[in-house]
């Protein structure tokens, strides 16, 4: 796209609100909320795996060295039990994320538009409550030894609160409020992504040790405490959106319409929004889908990882991809085109998934973050591009619509990845990873 055409599509610039010291609380809030969600999501799969083993009374065959049911001999009865546990846990994951992703699809649209009216700070409270409820529900359920399918309730309520997807909408909208269009906006998006990376890395690095030393019960209680701390910090955060209007029941349809109008209302930028949304979807779908099967994949033979090793790898991957890789986006943005960044990032992602599918030892798994170092480039560029062609007063609605795409990808990716992995693990456990890589290929075809 020519520079002249980009300039024509940019809305008229408005004066940004003056930054204050307490605005720096926002990165802390992002880190803590991301940390809490990562720890909970990492623990939930491992808890289900443990609970299913206990239900089938086969915990006595858990590997003493690796602390997971693992048998490499495919003719062994233990191997068949191992694959059965993998399949049951994957299906449980699918049901839970289906219950979570359906309500979040609507809530992500609404929360983004609400934040344009009630402000970004109030919108942050909603996903924080979801984190507190889910963590508390897990703590009570683990203590009382409820059936694992009762935990679907916690996922549903978390979805009603918008979970981490509403956090993304609020965080990017907050950044858009405080930055100008152009390179400043791109830097803002990169900064938010790096902050998310810090939270993810902190969560995955520590999750294994939290599970090991505190267990699932007290680990859940700790996350309730994180949620309470978040509420306190949000109360101290200055508002970046000056509107003081109130939400009324008669305007709910308008909020929903604002979020989807980018793609349906006739305008010079309508088709660009649609194309960017399609490419964004194919880039995001595998990134969300992999989260739900990564733990199961490395708990299976020949890796047989325990919670600490899973956390160590997750931390290495997060630092490489969401901190180091994302930090490279800003300098590369100055010396190459946006199209080139999307292509390079997609190729990096494809390499990451193919190598994961072909991995046969720990070294190959730990090499995947290096190959996939730049896989977040396409999402960063697309978010920045969509924000730059959107008026300031509609940034919340835009990021609400992007959050809805995220939640749609979460619904499809979470459910399909678990069903696909559960259905193919006994045939070829790397099949789902090859499917993830193919999504990036399709995204490149649309982008080209």
Automatic annotation (TrEMBL):
Signal peptide positions (record): none
Keyword Metal-binding: no
Domain Major facilitator superfamily (MFS) profile: 22-448
PROSITE patterns listed in its UniProt record: MFS (PS50850)
Record GO terms (molecular function): transmembrane transporter activity
InterPro entries hit by this protein: MFS, MFS_dom, MFS_trans_sf
Membrane topology according to the record: Multi-pass membrane protein
Transmembrane regions listed in the UniProt entry: 21-40, 92-111, 123-142, 148-174, 186-210, 216-237, 273-291, 311-333, 340-359, 365-384, 396-421, 427-447
Pfam families linked to this entry: MFS_1
Name under which the protein is recorded: MFS transporter, PCFT/HCP family, solute carrier family 46 (Folate transporter), member 1/3
Protein localization: Membrane
PANTHER family: FI18259P1-RELATED, ZGC:174356
Cellular component annotations (GO), alphabetically ordered: membrane
Keywords, in A-Z order: Membrane, Transmembrane, Transmembrane helix
Primary localization: membrane
